[in-house]
Write a structure and sequence with these properties.
Blueprint: H1 16-70, H2 75-85, H3 90-114, H4 116-122, H5 132-155, H6 158-181, H7 187-190, H8 195-202, H9 205-217, H10 222-253, H11 259-271, H12 273-290, H13 295-317, H14 319-331, H15 338-364, H16 368-393, H17 395-428
Helix pairs in contact: 1-5, 1-6, 1-10, 1-11, 1-12, 2-3, 2-5, 2-10, 3-5, 3-9, 5-6, 5-8, 10-16, 10-17, 11-15, 12-15, 13-15, 14-15, 15-17, 16-17
Length: 436
Amino acid sequence: MSKMFQSGTVSDSAHKPRLLIRNLGLTFFEAVITRGLNFFLILLLTRTLGPSDYGKYAFIFVAVSVLSALFDFGMENTAVRFSARDKTRMDSVFGLYLLLKLGILSVVVLTLVLAQQWFFSALNKSELMVFMPFLIVGLVGESLFFVNDTYCQANQWFQLRATLNIIRFSVSCFFIGMLFFYNALSLQWVLYVYWIPFLFSLLFLGQYIKFVSAFWKSDLPGALMTEMASYQKWMLIYSVANNLLSRLDFLMLGLWVSYTQLGIYNAAVQLCTIIAFLPLVLGKVLLPTLSDLDKHQVFHISEKIIPYTLILVLAALMLIPISPMAIPLLFGKQYQLSVGIFQILVLAYAASLMSMPFEQALYSLGKPDVLCASRYWQLAVIVLFNIALIPFWGVYGAAVSNLIGRLLYLLKVRLHYLRYQQTVYEKTEPQWVVGS
């Protein structure tokens, strides 16, 4: 399997616009296919399990997603950024990334095993403790698979990345489809789907050995390690807030509402992936593309992307008027409450999409500190609004809090981008000497 990953030369700057368009197309195609397969799974699960059991499945799903992303600590962005700058040290950088990830995973898994009763009790979900093995297997599998995914991104091998992800989602789809066909689609059997990313990641064992070997054989310069540590410091602080925000609404809802309401809310969230995947697609391609450009080029490309992002936002808003007819038709009448939640969340995810060009520009310009401050400010706003609104408005309170937080984040990131752009342009403007 490791033969699939052969070092190549990324096109030079003359080919960057064409390469960017090609990579965007490949990543968009991958996202459409994988989201389509995931949507098929959601239809089967929501209709067959019902809101209550689907709510339990969604809780484990969210826990795996949040924990696997949270304990990456933003190392993905650090690995991509510094690999793009010096491709001769790419395997060594990923060896360091993998070793740190394995160390963190070991601590997290041990903690979950020893403190599982406290973990589920704190979330008011003690009855789900029997599913802890599935959570751990899913966490390890997702975390390891993420390393390969990131390596493809750093090399801009988006065709290979798309192929791997589509195959993985296809296997999951086949498994759930077979359970449905044999009338065995129950919560207990569905959770075995979490073994798929774990087994899939084992296929890349040779690649992991290659990374670690390259790291031990190399001697990464002290200056580079210091620069990476400085950048990672901000990425770690930023990633904690960013990953908590990804499903904070769902986790806080679990403290107040039933599994049925959790299932209804998560159905609306999953339908919103039609929009939510767009910032991820664009960000995956833009970060390695922008990271080896100078500041003026970064601003130039970002300004060109903004109008196209606005068009995508307007297209996404067209989903609002059709949702009252589409959601009951897709999920069933028992998910009627999802309509209003979906309409609010469409606005929230549209705001996130609009913030993407500014966010990726600041990433590539080495300004994670301002993004970090903005994310923690957003986190504080959403937590306060959730505490104030969920006890009274339930699932609608979580959706409204999400919307307010994302809108305010968009405003702050846009302001930081404009200020830094002005600073850069002022420093590089010609200085006229009096009398010359």
